[in-house]
Each structure stands twice: as C-alpha cells, then as structure tokens.
Design brief:
Helix content: 25-40%
Number of domains: 2
Protein name: Imidazolonepropionase
Largest sheet: 8 strands, mixed
Enzyme class: hydrolase
Bound molecules: zinc ion
CATH superfamily of the largest domain: Metal-dependent hydrolases
Pfam family, one: Amidohydro_1
Binding site for 4-imidazolone-5-propanoate: 118, 181, 214, 282, 359
Low-confidence stretches: 1-46
Mean pLDDT: 89
Function: Catalyzes the hydrolytic cleavage of the carbon-nitrogen bond in imidazolone-5-propanoate to yield N-formimidoyl-L-glutamate. It is the third step in the universal histidine degradation pathway.
Shape: globular
C-alpha cells in the first residue's frame, strides 16, 4: 500500500480528512503528540488527528476477531459506537484511506518501573564473565534492587517515562506494571506509587501488580518464609490499603519461591479479594502453573516448561498463558512454551514485552509479536490476539482489546494492509495514529 500523508487543503483550517466543515477541532495540549510513521524528505508532517466529538472513521479496514473487514468505525463519548456500516446523522467523518484499525495494543507484563540498568552486566557476560563473577561485581537482580531502593518516586517515574513512551509510540494504551525490585516495605509501595503516577502524566491506562514475591532479598538469604511473613505480606496489605494493587503476582522457581510459599501469597491475595497471576515454569517445571490455575489466576506467565496437564488446567480455569519471548531470546533459552498443547486445549495466549533490566530490556510490543511468531510459532493472528483481546483478559479487563460496540475506543491505526504485517516486520513501526478512550493523537 502506498503511504498516505494527510494534509490540510490550502486555505482550509480543518483537519485533513474531516469532511463536515466544522473547522479545526482544538488540539488538546494535554494530549501528547506521539510518534508517527514518518515522512519522506521534503514532505509536510501529518496534521494531528483529534477525536473530540462523535466521529466516524471511514474507509478503514477493521481487524475483527474473525478477520479483516472493510468498513467504518464510529466513536462517541470515548467508546466504540458502531462498526461496519457508518450510522447516519451529523458525525464528523475522517477518511482513513484504507488504513488498518486494530484494537490498541496492550502490554500485559512489564517491570518498567525500576532503578538503573544492567548494560555493564550485559557487556561482562559477552566478555565471558560467569554468573558468579557478575554477582560478585554487584550485578544481577541485587544491583537493580539497590538502584531501585535508592530512587525516589520522581526518579522512578523519570526513568520509566522513556520506556512508557516507546510503548505508547507503538499504539499501546494499557500497560501492566509490577513492583518487585524493592523487596522491602517502603520500596515496594514506592514502586507502585510511581506506576500509578504514570497514568497522570501520559494518556495511558496502568494496571499494577504487587510482586513482593519476586526474589528473596540478600538480608533474608536462606529465610524465604521469614521474608514472606515479615515483609512481603505486610507490604501487600499496606499497598492494598492505599489502593495501589490491581493484582498479585509471584515468581515460582527454584531460584525464587516454591509452590507452597506462593500459595501463602495467593491466600493473602484471596483474603483481600485481589486476583492473582504468576511467573511460572520459566526455567524449570516446579508446579506453579497448576497452582495458579487452582487459584483461578488471571494468567500464568512464561510457561516454557508447562506440560500438557498444565495446559489442561489453564484451560479449565480460564487462565491466560502469557508468553514472553524477549526473556527467552535474551537468556538464549531452548525450551519453547507448549504452544501446540495450548492450542489443543483452547488456552488463550497473550504476548508481552516483560520489559525488565535483566532478562528482557525490551520496549517493543511489535517486536514481541515478531518474536512470538518466529521463536514460538504463533500465527500473526495469534500474535495480534495476544497483544489485544487475550492481553486484556490477562489483566481482567473486559472493556478493551476488541473492536466491538460499547467497548472503549482504544484504537491503533496502521499504515499496513493486513495484521500479518505488524508481526512480520522487524524493528519497523507503521503506526499512523493512536486513539485512547476516544482521544486521538497523531504526530
Ligand atoms: Zn516478569
């Protein structure tokens, strides 16, 4: 498809493509202008696209759950009012010239709030340093914990914003953010406050997960149960009392917590009526997936070592399998998640960046889609479902993730012909515009 750049006609103040002659909709200064797919040399930048009144996006291609259909999508009061045939009446009309509309993307598993980075450790590893040598040099999760403990809310927010902006620039409107690099009462809560702050600074929706059971801090080495009793569970209750927790997460692995310890965390979550999710079966099989399913978890994440029986359990519980190819790639893992078993048992699969400073310093959902296809064998349609409707499900959200009347108008508009192009390209961002709850931005 040829790339179209919308420009206002000479002497006309309206936004290009707007046909109703109401004049230029005001550009809300509170709405950040975001990335667009660029202009060729000498071309004028596209005009901002603003949706602040009942609007029909017409001449579009709509990525619906059962395939792509040409038609229109109407937006009113921040929601999708209709799809398919445009309704009659006095609507602002924007001609999308055949562009593809998908649900806005959702990154349902991130650790974007954290202090510092681990580039030095990355370099050491490539120069042949062992894990133990890196740990002795202060590397590993310990370095992130100490950098995070030393950061204020303002610091954490300032460091996270460029990562969040990179996601937003790819049409992401909802981001899950975990705690888990504080591992003490104050810092776990500070991380969640920083996460909540993000949605006051950007047009984005944040869902928080309390991940106190991420690792055992050095001061509790060999005393994981004491850490849970003295720090993790009190921090969970305090964070919940402050309204900072949307879900409770844990890391079930030989190097972290065993299923019995995770069960204590889940029992505490249940007592607070909070949903749970779990990092499970990433490096070994420990039984975390079955445990998560037995608690009706929203999601079991990583799941490389999940078995056929685990897939059955996820299916029966309606728990989403969140696949995280960025960590698989960075750690050069060999065991891919059992996608065929997930398909056979009808397990919903999501994809996410797992953005974190150690095993997945990745801020591209589009790249996660590509990796999900190339490394795990997902189809492009599965990849798109994985970052839209199944990602919404992994966060317990039923008001977004699909193009359907009544849902939030969280949309991504792309300069591509088919959804497959989103997963196919590597390191290319064809976003044309992003619509967040009815408010559109286009760079
Ligand atoms: Zn993670």
């Amino acid at each position: 498809m040829q790339r179209h750049i919308l420009r206002p006609a000479v002497g006309q103040k309206g936004v290009a493509g707007v046909k109703d002659g109401h004049g230029a909709p005001p550009i809300d200064p509170g709405i950040m202008c975001i990335h667009n797919s660029g202009t060729t040399e000498g071309e004028q930048a596209p005009m901002p696209l603003t949706i602040d009144r009942p609007t029909i996006l017409e001449n579009a291609r709509l990525a619906l759950p059962d395939g792509v259909r040409s038609g229109a999508l109407a937006v009113q009061d921040g929601h999708i009012a209709a799809i398919g045939t445009p309704p009659a009446g006095d609507w602002t009309r924007i001609d999308l010239q055949g562009r593809l509309i998908t649900p806005a993307l959702i990154d349902c598993h991130t650790h974007i709030i954290h202090g510092g980075h681990r580039a030095q450790e990355f370099a050491m590893r490539l120069e042949g340093a062992s894990y133990a040598e890196i740990a002795r040099a202060g590397g590993g999760i310990v370095s992130t914990v100490s950098a995070t403990r030393g950061a204020s809310v303002d610091d954490l927010v300032a460091q996270a914003l460029p990562r969040l902006d990179a996601l937003i620039a790819e049409g992401v409107t909802t981001v899950e953010v975990k705690s888990g690099y504080g591992l003490d009462m104050e810092t776990e809560i500070r991380m969640l406050r920083a996460a909540r702050r993000l949605e006051t600074l950007r047009p984005v929706r944040i869902r928080t997960s309390f991940l106190g059971a991420h690792a055992v801090p050095a001061e509790y080495s060999g005393r994981a149960d004491d850490y849970l009793h003295e720090i993790c569970l009190p921090a969970l209750r305090a964070a919940h009392a402050e309204g900072l927790v949307d879900a409770v997460d844990g890391f079930c692995e030989g190097i972290a917590f065993d299923p019995a310890q995770i069960a204590r965390v889940f029992d505490a979550a249940r007592a607070l009526e909070l949903p749970v999710k779990l990092h499970a079966e990433q490096l070994t099989h420990t039984g975390g997936t079955a445990l998560a399913a037995s608690y009706g978890a929203l999601s079991a994440d990583h799941v490389e070592y999940a078995t056929d029986a685990d897939a059955q359990a996820l299916s029966a519980a309606g728990t989403v399998a969140v696949l995280l190819p960025g960590a698989f790639y960075t750690l050069r893992e060999r065991q891919a998640p059992p996608v065929a078993a997930f398909r056979a048992h009808g397990v919903a699969m999501a994809l996410a960046t797992d953005c974190n400073p150690g095993s997945s310093p990745m801020t591209s959902v589009l790249l996660a889609m590509n990796m999900g296809c190339t490394l795990f064998g997902l189809t492009p349609d599965e990849a798109l479902a994985g970052v839209t409707r199944n990602a919404a499900r992994a966060l317990g959200l039923s008001d977004c993730g699909t193009l359907a009347p009544g849902l939030r108008a969280d949309l991504a508009i792309w300069d591509v012909e088919s959804p497959a192009e989103l997963a196919y390209r590597i390191g290319f961002n064809p976003l044309y515009a992003r619509v967040f709850g009815g408010a559109a931005t286009q760079g």
